[in-house]
Structure to design on (331 residues):
């Protein structure tokens, strides 16, 4: 009798076993096949619209990548960065890191509109951001990775979180590392994800102090190549020109590669937050040298770190919602 009960128990466990292993889950709840049944063309639609936007304006790739980063570092990867101000919600778009610089919202709107037509109320804005970041990387020559999916969208925003949690160009190395560690990321993730600065632009106001008064002594940052600094000063004066744009990687500004790290080794990193990866910490400096020497190692780690960042406290299950419009919560 006992043997027959045990046999029946074993049969019942085996019957349910395939249900437990049918899809590889990453980070507990997120997995790349999340929409395979509910919206099979989701990734294809995102990629198509991102490709069109980047072909029209190459800078858009960096903008979309940055949106995902600025989303995840606030309340987790929940599309809070996309919300406009309304009612009690104060938009993160008004924060210091985002004001006059965060962009690409219209591309996300276009993707969301297309997905709502294809499979209404199914694909979250948070997942759109994660997919658009991956596609932007690939379209500019960078690595690809399977994007874990299944995030849901937040019901609010945090302008204070946006102001305080996102690393700033003038933060010290330790402050930046602490901000990464508070999100479950480490020094390897910091150096690898900083490599996204191989594409995109920065404003004069983000690095002006390096050109004129880095330490309060009225002199340029000594870790910045002085010929390069003189060139930057021609379009970034002591006052005025705050919004003037400069490429972050002057060698291959619209190609995703490891020249960002090679530029750091030549003392030609644009932002203070870039150059301190080489000058303020031996572990990070060794990683900069490794990625400068080997593009494949950089690409492999960048992909791993992007998946890790994309797993920062996502809303899953019944938490949050699937917004119909990425700019506002559902009514």
């Amino acid at each position: 009798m006992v043997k027959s009960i045990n046999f029946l128990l074993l049969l019942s466990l085996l019957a349910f076993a395939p249900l437990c292993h049918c899809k590889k889950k990453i980070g507990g709840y997120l997995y790349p096949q999340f929409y395979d049944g509910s919206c099979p063309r989701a990734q294809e639609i995102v990629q198509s619209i991102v490709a069109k936007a980047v072909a029209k304006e190459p800078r858009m790739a960096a903008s979309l990548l940055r949106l995902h980063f600025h989303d995840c570092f606030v309340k987790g990867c929940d599309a809070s960065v996309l919300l406009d101000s309304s009612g009690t919600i104060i938009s993160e778009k008004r924060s210091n890191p985002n004001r006059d610089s965060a962009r690409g919202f219209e591309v996300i709107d276009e993707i969301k509109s297309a997905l709502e037509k294809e499979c209404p109320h199914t694909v979250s804005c948070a997942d759109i951001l994660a997919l658009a970041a991956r596609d932007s990387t690939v379209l500019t020559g960078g690595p690809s990775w399977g994007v874990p999916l299944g995030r849901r969208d937040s019901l609010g925003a945090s302008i204070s979180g946006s102001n305080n949690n996102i690393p700033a160009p003038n933060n010290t190395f330790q402050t930046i590392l602490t901000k990464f560690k508070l999100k479950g990321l480490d020094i390897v993730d910091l150096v690898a994800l900083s490599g996204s600065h191989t594409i995109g632009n920065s404003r004069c106001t983000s690095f002006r102090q390096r050109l004129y008064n880095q330490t309060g002594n009225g002199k340029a940052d000594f870790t910045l190549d002085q010929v390069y600094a003189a060139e930057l000063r021609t379009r970034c004066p002591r006052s005025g020109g705050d919004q003037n744009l400069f490429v972050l990687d002057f060698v291959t500004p619209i190609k995703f590669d490891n020249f960002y790290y090679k530029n750091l080794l030549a003392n030609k990193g644009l932002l203070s937050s870039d150059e301190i990866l080489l000058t303020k910490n031996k572990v990070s400096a060794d990683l900069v040298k490794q990625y400068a020497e080997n593009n494949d190692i950089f690409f492999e780690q960048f992909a791993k770190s992007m998946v890790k960042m994309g797993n920062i406290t996502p809303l899953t299950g019944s938490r949050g919602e699937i917004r119909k419009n990425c700019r506002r919560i559902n009514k």
About this structure: Strands lie at 201-203, 245-247. The chain has two domains: 42-165, 173-310. The two ends are 58 Å apart (CA to CA). The longest helix spans residues 2-20.
